[in-house]
Amino acid sequence: MARWAIAIHGGAGVDPNLPEHRQEEAKRVLARCLQVGVDLLRAGATALDVVEAVVRELETDPCFNSGRGSALTRAGTVEMEASIMDGRGRRCGAVSGVSTVKNPVSLARRVMDKSPHSYLAFDGAEHFAREQGLEVVDNSYFITEENVSMLKLAKEANSILFDYRIPLAGADTCSALAAATENLNSNGMVMNGLPISIYAPETVGCAVVDSDGFTAAATSTGGLMNKMTGRIGDSPLIGAGTYACGHCAVSCTGEGEAIIRSTLARDVAAVMEYKGLPLQEAVDFCVKERLDEGFAGLIAVSGTGEVAYGFNCTGMFRGCATEDGFMEVGIWE
Predict the structure, then answer these.
(1) Active-site residue (options: 46, 100, 203, 219)
(2) Do you know which Pfam families this protein is assigned to (predicted)?
């Protein structure tokens, strides 16, 4: 039998000044969700069932940017997206523009399992969710007071906020945001010509290989704070934000446009397959050579039970565990 392994993430690119209590909160959530996956794998669950269950846990907790706590569009609404892929036969499902489905990753799986398609979006995805009897809630369920405040600041600064959970509350929050934006702009960090105030998207994802050697991956996000309505990132795109096959399973996080251009998740598998590199070397190669000027990170597992991660920005919320008892939750290098 193969050795099982699991890796999870809560976003790449973390402000080095993130308060200690925020770091600890994130690590507690990661540890709890990682344990959910470990318990399922020990009980013999399939990789596909595990990635769905773990990402559902991450979507339900407002700590990260998926499900409840998702980033807001310019219109002040939530438009979520998710994807899931089964390494057996490379089956996949994805959704975008979801605004009432409590757990978008489960809708992505229903698209894979119960529809003739691989990808549904907006009204079509919402209608299919109701046909399938998935739990739906009002859009307000996903919106937090903190996100409403940060959207206001993002609009005032004309910025797309990545790490919108960094507390800027104080005597002059607008000045603090403006200072952060100015600092990053001076370093040339921009996205599609727009200033990026603070970099850390906090997308969530999970990659698993089970005891039978089968792999699966899933990714879910609310996208960017202050994004244009209708914007679609890498998370629901198979081969970009999510990929699974016999060689590995991968979930990506970071600057979506850069991940899309590099087809980052698929490239890890391709480098393993065509260059014969082991998992960590493949991850390192893709992060270094494929992102050009983009910023991103990823987690991965191999079909033989290895775990790996890589990022080219400051920190990545992550955790991993293997059958031999190794378990780790971290943020920095």
Answers:
(1) 203
(2) Asparaginase_2
Residue 297 marked in a binding site: no
10 is in an annotated binding site: no
Distance CA 182, CA 323 (A): 46
Alpha helices in 187-299 (DSSP H): 256-262, 264-270, 279-289
pLDDT tens-digit profile of 225-264? 888 999 999 999 999 999 999 999 999 999 899 999 999 9
Alpha carbon 131 to chain centroid distance? 27
Sheet holding 5-12, edge to edge: 119-121, 91-98, 80-86, 215-221, 204-209, 5-12, 316-322, 327-330
Query: Where residue 293 falls among pLDDT bands split at 50, 70, 90?
Result: confident
Return d(Cα 103, Cα 299) in angstroms, integer: 21
255 annotated among ligand-binding-site residues: yes
The residue with greater pLDDT, 25 or 199, is: 25
The question of whether 100 is a catalytic residue gets the answer: no
Is 315 annotated among the ligand-binding residues? no
pTM above threshold 0.85: yes
How far is 283 from 310, CA to CA, in rounded Å? 6
First-to-last C-alpha distance (Å) of the chain: 32
Q: What is the mean pLDDT of the chain?
A: 88
Q: Can you give the residue ranges of every domain in the chain? A: 5-140+199-323
- Tokens representing 74? 């310019």
Q: Alpha-carbon distance 29 to 165, whole Å?
A: 15
Higher pLDDT, 14 or 10: 10
Mean pLDDT on 118-143: 97
Q: CA of 79: how far to CAs of 108, 135, 163, 304, 314, in Å?
A: 14, 16, 17, 36, 27
Paired strand residues for 307? 301
pLDDT at 185 over 90: no
Tokens standing for residue 120: 């549904």
Superfamily (CATH) of domain 5-140+199-323: (Glycosyl)asparaginase (3.60.20.30)
Contact 62, 144 (CB under 8 A): yes
Query: DSSP code of 139?
Result: G
Q: Is 97 annotated as a binding residue?
A: no
